[in-house]
Specification:
The protein is built from three helices and five strands. By secondary structure, the chain is of the alpha+beta class. The protein has a five-stranded antiparallel β-sheet with strand order 1-2-3-5-4.
């Protein structure tokens, strides 16, 4: 399947849709998941038009990994989770819902169960507040 340049992340990268941005550089953008599994759920997205890991250029993969590590440290400092889940899906059968490669950083808090992904929209003001708290620790 060819890359769909009208997917929501492509639109965010072009500035056509808003997001609660936490960090960006020339290769990646990190922003809050609008349907988070927990407080502080961040997505790291490459600026490369790749649907999945099979299509992503190796240099962008390295940059996503660097940004994921940077944001993981900031989330740990900002929100003090007891752990972090870092995961990524490739294909609809694997759970991918937006077909632009991206990494999830999901904080875990003292064994509390996370919400189901894509289940409930978070209030924009809460997402923006958490984004600012994380960004302040970068």
């Amino acid at each position: 399947m060819p890359y769909d340049s009208e997917n929501v992340f492509a639109k965010i990268l072009r500035g056509e849709m808003p997001c609660h941005k936490v960090y960006e550089n020339e290769s990646t953008v990190a922003f809050m998941d609008i349907m988070p599994m927990s407080d502080g759920h961040v997505l790291v997205v490459p600026r490369s038009p790749a649907e999945n890991i099979f299509d992503l250029d190796e240099e962008y993969l390295k940059e996503v990994t660097k940004t994921t590590k940077l944001l993981s440290h900031a989330i740990k400092k900002a929100l003090d989770p007891s752990g972090l889940i870092v995961k990524q899906f490739n294909g609809s059968d694997a759970g991918q819902t937006v077909f632009h490669y991206h990494m999830h950083i999901i904080p875990v808090y003292n064994g509390a169960p996370n919400k189901n992904h894509g289940y409930e929209m978070e209030k924009p003001e809460r997402l923006e507040s958490i984004a600012q708290i994380i960004a302040a620790k970068l």
